[in-house]
User: Which sequence fits this backbone?
């Protein structure tokens, strides 16, 4: 999703990170109205003159980009992104990363789990939000990705005891982790890309792992701006949409869907 990123190329990065939906917003009032109507909650309508309508203007895309770039990334993060591009994988967008750091700090996350380490971009954000004594358990089957993430952690001066990298598939590893022992669980792209049953299983495992007051975060919750469009019925979009509903309707969770990055679904475990 992201082009190769070099220090000093922020504008190019943001441009390449702009999702399709953001471009749609730019194309004028008609498509804006369509997007706004589409964005009305299930079965609901968008009343003319409502606060929600007032908040959705043709400038929404530029606001999204501004928010995306609001927290400036340092060279360690940019190099981790470069490694992701070199290895043909991707990483959370900057606004998502910054939000994850804030969430980790807000819940004083001493224990966190990440599904899909990649080259460590989201991990770095989480570790920055976690207290010094916090330990991040991060899961990925790709040894090469984990090696790249370890390089990023070393560059960031993260002590080796603060990360527990587990090599394997999340659905094999998560069941071995302790119930209610974690302050934050991040489900990345691999939690959504498999079958519908697998996606549900990832969420179930995440909820099981969270302590009361812990936070669930699911990246890509707007799935390339397809989730909000009911005409999109491909398997991946349907799965992500259903995961959203599942989290929203789960009485154990207090949810919110943040339109940051590719969409970040967050929920507090009650
Ligand atoms: C998009 S990258 C993760 C990016 C990372 N969250 C970040 O922002 O830096 C997805 C990663 O998930 C890993 N992956 C694929 N299938 C997986 C699975 N079943 N369980 C855990 N990780 C998996 C891939 O090897 C890849 O490194």
Assistant:
């Amino acid at each position: 999703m992201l082009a190769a990123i070099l220090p000093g190329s922020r504008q190019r990065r943001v441009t390449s990170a702009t999702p399709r939906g953001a471009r749609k917003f730019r194309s004028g009032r008609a498509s804006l109205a369509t997007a706004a109507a589409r964005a009305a909650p299930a079965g609901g309508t968008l009343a003319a003159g409502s606060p929600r309508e007032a908040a959705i203007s043709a400038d929404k895309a530029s606001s999204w980009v501004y928010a995306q770039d609001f927290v400036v990334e340092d060279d360690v993060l940019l190099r981790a992104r470069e490694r992701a591009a070199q290895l043909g994988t991707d990483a959370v967008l900057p606004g998502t990363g910054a939000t994850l750091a804030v969430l980790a700090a807000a819940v004083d996350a001493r224990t966190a789990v990440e599904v899909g380490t990649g080259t460590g971009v989201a991990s770095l954000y989480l570790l920055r939000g976690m207290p010094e004594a916090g330990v991040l358990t991060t899961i990925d089957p790709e040894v090469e990705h984990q090696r790249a993430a370890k390089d990023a952690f070393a560059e960031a001066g993260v002590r080796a005891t603060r990360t527990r990298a587990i090599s394997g598939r999340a659905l094999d590893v998560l069941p071995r982790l302790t119930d209610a022992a974690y302050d934050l669980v991040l489900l990345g792209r691999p939690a959504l890309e498999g079958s519908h049953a697998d996606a549900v299983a990832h969420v179930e495992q995440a909820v099981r792992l969270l302590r009361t007051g812990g936070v669930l975060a699911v990246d890509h919750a707007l799935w390339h701006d397809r989730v909000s469009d009911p005409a999109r019925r491909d398997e991946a979009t349907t799965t992500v949409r259903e995961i959203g509903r599942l989290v929203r309707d789960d009485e154990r969770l207090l949810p919110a869907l943040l339109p940051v990055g590719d969409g970040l679904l967050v929920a507090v475990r009650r």
Remarks:
- The first strand starts at residue 111 and ends at 115.
